[in-house]
Amino acid sequence: MSDSRTWLGVEPTHNPFRWVLPIDLGVCSGYGTLFGGAALGAAIVALEGTAGRPVVWATAHYLSFAPEGSVLDIDVVLAAEGNTTTQARATGHIGGSEIITVNAALGRRDYPDTYLHPVMPPVRPPEECPLRAATTTPGTISSRFESRMALLQAESAELAANDAAGLERRPGLIGPGRVGMWIRVPGLTDGSAAALAVLGDFVPMAISVALDAPTASNSLDNTIRVLNVQPTEWFLLDIQVEGVVTGFGHGMVRMFTPDGVLLAIGSQSAMVRKRT
């Protein structure tokens, strides 16, 4: 098992406030540019490495594309440091071009009570679900994932509701506009905030499933809110597409372990176009 820093390829420098990410094919999408979730994951590695505290919340604003073969410099600013919490930001740039801006809060507080409301949808285990049918460019980040489209348990109330609504039963569609996907990444099972950020960048995929139409999307942002960090081989992504209007899609994702532990909540907006 490797940690997120090694898996992504993030490297420290002599300056504790600057990190670098060599952009090789393994962190790129099929378009040959840095995958948005990998960019946020790399920024989280830099933020946690500089602040010495775990990320609670981080949001990325994607500004431009970073091509394969370039190097992303990540500069960290610790804007405010308290006894238990740090407010910080990271900017990733190539030369004079800013690629990504990330704002974040980091820390942990000694508070005894725990409350978790969302529960994992009643889906079959990953070994009973079909592989995701997708065109994968060899060597890109998607080729490093194993993903399976979730199927609801036959006895679930959600499945009955789908039938009552007249929805065609399609792999991955677990409710109106709601998509479930199991995913594992060989070598990356630490369940860290950086790993969750990588896996949280799948709202655009869910838009295609929800619309039942081939689409291509460019993420505008990516937000991750971390509740639990724990190792797991499989992650369940429970993605709700909230709407697609005037060429922009919006949605959220909840990430669970197979035994139902809620790890994180993410949200995204993306530009959507028909795939030709």
Kindly describe this structure.
This protein folds into 2 domains: 104 residues, Porin; 149 residues, Acyl-CoA thioesterase, double hotdog domain (Porin), CATH 2.40.160.210. Strand 1 and strand 2 form a beta hairpin. It is of the alpha+beta class and 276 residues long. Strands 1, 2, 3, 4, 5, 6, 7, 8, 9, 10, 11, 12, 13 and 14 form a 14-stranded antiparallel β-sheet that branches. The model has no long low-confidence stretch (mean pLDDT 93). The radius of gyration is 18 Å and the shape is globular. It has 5 helices and 14 strands.
How do you describe this structure in short?
The protein has 276 residues and is α+β, with helices and mostly antiparallel strands. The chain has helices at 4-8, 36-51, 157-165, 193-199, 203-211; strands spanning 11-12, 18-22, 55-62, 71-81, 85-94, 97-107, 146-149, 173-175, 178-184, 215-219, 221-226, 235-245, 248-256, 262-274.
Text of the CATH class of the largest domain: Mainly Beta
One letter per element, helices H and strands E, the order comes to HEEHEEEEEHEEHHEEEEE
Number of domains: 2
Quote the distance from N terminus to C terminus: 38 Å
Fraction of residues in β-strands: 35-45%
CATH topology tier name of the largest domain: Porin
SSE-based structural type: alpha+beta
In this structure, how is the largest beta sheet organized?
A: 14 strands, antiparallel
